Amino acid sequence: MRILNHQYRGVDRTTDVLAFPQIETKIPNLELKPQNFILGDIVINLHKAKRQAIEYGITFNTEVKKLLIHGILHLIGYDHEKGGYPEKKMRRKERELFEKIH
Protein backbone atom coordinates (compact mmCIF):
# COMPACT_ATOMS: atom_id res chain seq x y z
CA MET A 1 0.00 0.00 0.00
CA ARG A 2 2.90 2.30 0.71
CA ILE A 3 4.29 1.68 -2.76
CA LEU A 4 0.93 2.41 -4.40
CA ASN A 5 0.46 5.55 -2.32
CA HIS A 6 3.93 6.77 -3.30
CA GLN A 7 3.60 5.81 -6.95
CA TYR A 8 0.18 7.36 -7.55
CA ARG A 9 -0.05 10.15 -4.98
CA GLY A 10 3.58 10.99 -4.24
CA VAL A 11 3.04 10.25 -0.54
CA ASP A 12 5.73 7.98 0.90
CA ARG A 13 3.73 6.30 3.67
CA THR A 14 1.05 3.66 3.93
CA THR A 15 -2.64 4.49 3.93
CA ASP A 16 -5.85 2.67 4.69
CA VAL A 17 -7.65 3.11 1.37
CA LEU A 18 -6.87 4.30 -2.14
CA ALA A 19 -9.33 5.04 -4.92
CA PHE A 20 -8.45 5.02 -8.59
CA PRO A 21 -11.20 6.64 -10.70
CA GLN A 22 -11.94 5.26 -14.14
CA ILE A 23 -12.53 8.82 -15.39
CA GLU A 24 -10.12 11.47 -14.15
CA THR A 25 -12.03 14.55 -15.27
CA LYS A 26 -15.55 15.61 -14.51
CA ILE A 27 -17.87 15.37 -17.49
CA PRO A 28 -20.90 17.68 -17.24
CA ASN A 29 -24.27 15.94 -17.37
CA LEU A 30 -22.70 12.48 -17.53
CA GLU A 31 -25.41 9.92 -16.90
CA LEU A 32 -24.03 7.16 -14.69
CA LYS A 33 -25.86 3.91 -15.28
CA PRO A 34 -24.69 1.05 -13.05
CA GLN A 35 -25.15 -1.53 -15.78
CA ASN A 36 -22.66 0.14 -18.12
CA PHE A 37 -20.35 2.32 -16.05
CA ILE A 38 -17.34 1.46 -13.90
CA LEU A 39 -16.45 4.09 -11.32
CA GLY A 40 -12.94 2.76 -10.77
CA ASP A 41 -10.97 0.66 -8.33
CA ILE A 42 -10.69 0.77 -4.56
CA VAL A 43 -7.76 -0.77 -2.69
CA ILE A 44 -8.24 -1.34 1.04
CA ASN A 45 -5.27 -2.03 3.31
CA LEU A 46 -6.72 -4.87 5.38
CA HIS A 47 -3.83 -4.89 7.84
CA LYS A 48 -4.33 -1.21 8.58
CA ALA A 49 -8.10 -1.73 8.73
CA LYS A 50 -7.60 -4.38 11.39
CA ARG A 51 -5.36 -2.08 13.47
CA GLN A 52 -7.77 0.83 13.08
CA ALA A 53 -10.76 -1.32 14.10
CA ILE A 54 -8.98 -2.19 17.34
CA GLU A 55 -7.94 1.45 17.86
CA TYR A 56 -11.51 2.72 17.26
CA GLY A 57 -13.16 -0.07 19.26
CA ILE A 58 -15.22 -1.34 16.32
CA THR A 59 -15.35 -4.59 14.40
CA PHE A 60 -13.08 -5.29 11.47
CA ASN A 61 -16.12 -5.57 9.16
CA THR A 62 -17.39 -2.18 10.30
CA GLU A 63 -14.03 -0.57 9.57
CA VAL A 64 -13.87 -2.18 6.11
CA LYS A 65 -17.39 -0.89 5.35
CA LYS A 66 -16.32 2.61 6.37
CA LEU A 67 -13.23 2.44 4.19
CA LEU A 68 -15.25 1.17 1.24
CA ILE A 69 -17.69 4.07 1.58
CA HIS A 70 -14.74 6.46 1.84
CA GLY A 71 -13.25 5.03 -1.35
CA ILE A 72 -16.53 5.19 -3.25
CA LEU A 73 -16.99 8.83 -2.30
CA HIS A 74 -13.52 9.60 -3.64
CA LEU A 75 -14.45 7.85 -6.89
CA ILE A 76 -17.45 10.13 -7.34
CA GLY A 77 -15.52 13.31 -6.64
CA TYR A 78 -15.56 13.96 -2.90
CA ASP A 79 -12.24 15.18 -1.47
CA HIS A 80 -11.61 15.63 2.25
CA GLU A 81 -7.99 16.61 1.68
CA LYS A 82 -9.03 20.11 0.60
CA GLY A 83 -10.17 20.73 4.18
CA GLY A 84 -12.96 23.11 5.14
CA TYR A 85 -16.35 22.66 3.54
CA PRO A 86 -15.35 19.83 1.13
CA GLU A 87 -14.06 17.81 4.09
CA LYS A 88 -17.20 18.42 6.17
CA LYS A 89 -19.38 17.53 3.19
CA MET A 90 -17.53 14.24 2.66
CA ARG A 91 -17.58 13.29 6.36
CA ARG A 92 -21.31 14.01 6.53
CA LYS A 93 -21.95 11.84 3.46
CA GLU A 94 -19.81 9.04 4.93
CA ARG A 95 -21.94 9.01 8.09
CA GLU A 96 -25.17 9.16 6.11
CA LEU A 97 -24.22 6.22 3.87
CA PHE A 98 -22.84 4.16 6.74
CA GLU A 99 -26.07 4.56 8.70
CA LYS A 100 -28.02 3.30 5.68
CA ILE A 101 -26.04 0.08 5.37
CA HIS A 102 -25.28 -0.67 9.01
Per-chain topology:
Layout: H1 2-9, E1 17-21, E2 40-44, H2 46-56, H3 60-75, H4 84-101
Antiparallel strand pairs: 1-2
Helix pairs in contact: 2-3, 3-4
What can you tell me about this protein's structure?
The chain has a two-stranded antiparallel ribbon with strand order 1-2. The mean pLDDT is 91. It is 52% helix and 10% strand. The protein is mainly α and 102 residues long. The protein has four helices and two strands, in the order H-E-E-H-H-H. 10% of the residues are buried.
Features:
mainly alpha, 102 residues
State the secondary-structure class: mainly alpha
Helical segment count: 4
Strand elements, count: 2
Q: In which order are the strands of the major sheet placed?
A: 1-2
Overall shape: it is globular
Low-confidence stretches: none
The helical percent reads 40-55%
Helix-strand pattern? HEEHHH
Provide mean pLDDT, rounded.
Answer: 91
Output the radius of gyration: 14 Å
β content, as a range?
A: 5-15%
**N→C terminal distance:** 27 Å
Quick overview of this protein structure:
The protein is mostly helical and 102 residues long. 52% of the residues lie in helices and 10% in strands.
